[in-house]
From TrEMBL, chains A, B:
Species annotation: Asanoa siamensis
InterPro entries cross-referenced by the UniProt entry: HTH_HxlR, WH-like_DNA-bd_sf, WH_DNA-bd_sf
PANTHER family: HTH-TYPE TRANSCRIPTIONAL REGULATOR YODB, TRANSCRIPTIONAL REGULATOR, MARR FAMILY
Listed SUPFAM superfamilies: Winged helix' DNA-binding domain
Transcription regulation is among the record's keywords: yes
Keywords linked to the UniProt accession: DNA-binding, Transcription, Transcription regulation
One Pfam match: HxlR
Name of the protein: HTH hxlR-type domain-containing protein
Annotated HTH hxlR-type domain residues: 16-118
Keyword Nucleotide-binding recorded: no
Length: 118, 118
DNA sequence: GCTAGCTGCTTCGGAAATACTAGCGGCCTC
DNA sequence: GAGGCCGCTAGTATTTCCGAAGCAGCTAGC
């Protein structure tokens, strides 16, 4: 397949049409406030709740707790408890979670190019 | 730069760390309910309000109207009015809007691979 | 031992966002 | 004229997000 602009556009268009179900599912996750940033932050490696809260910045505890629960339920992240003392909790992305890396990379690239600085 | 798995992982990690500002900006758009799907649907080409509403499916008029306004204000989409009769309104992505295609493609690929069917 | 501070949550009440739906004016068809 | 389409808007109801207080567990310093 040649890499002409037209065929690339058509491929994108067909892909999005066939990927509608996929996009619906994906944005049921990514379209919730903070989820994308939580996942993006966990790309840097496993993290505790408070560490994650500080790294994300600006997310309330209750929402962060909800989002992490959802991500774990969806199999995108795991929650590991070290019984201690001191007790500690660590959140880490799963393979599925890390699978979002290419998309997040593309999003960051797009953002740097097209979104204005606030 | 070699393409070894380690350097790829490090590149992703560094990229996300350096892209945090970018991700924050991006998810201020994509992290809102329906915006991702609206953009994804407009990838198929220009569309009227009702046509878009039906294609996206499940979004309320008032929220769709809000989202489209926001996308236009951000320069991701344009709203064109044909004075008619009959009067018609068409929404279309800008170059910046279409610039999200690679990311949406990656998201759809990821979703197909890792998210469970409902 | 007490206090202060960290941890990871949970709970509660309120603010903000979203959903729902009726309605408007413009237009077309029967 | 009635009914239906269009693109919204406005008002109300519901859901989501938020902020902050609080809990239990733990540590460090006095």
């Amino acid at each position: 397949m040649t890499e002409s602009p037209e065929s690339h556009t058509a491929t994108v268009g067909e892909r999005c049409a066939r990927g509608d179900r996929g996009l619906v599912r994906a944005f049921s996750v990514l379209g919730k406030r903070w989820s994308g940033l939580v996942i993006g932050t966990l790309m840097n490696g496993p993290s505790g709740f408070r560490e994650l809260s500080r790294a994300v910045g600006g997310v309330s505890d209750s929402v962060l707790s909800d989002r992490l629960s959802e991500l774990c339920e969806l199999g995108l992240a795991t929650r590991r408890v070290e019984p201690g003392p001191p007790i500690s909790v660590t959140y880490e992305l799963t393979e599925a979670g890390y699978g979002l890396a290419p998309a997040l990379q593309e999003i960051a690239t797009w953002s740097d190019k097209f979104l204005v600085d606030d």
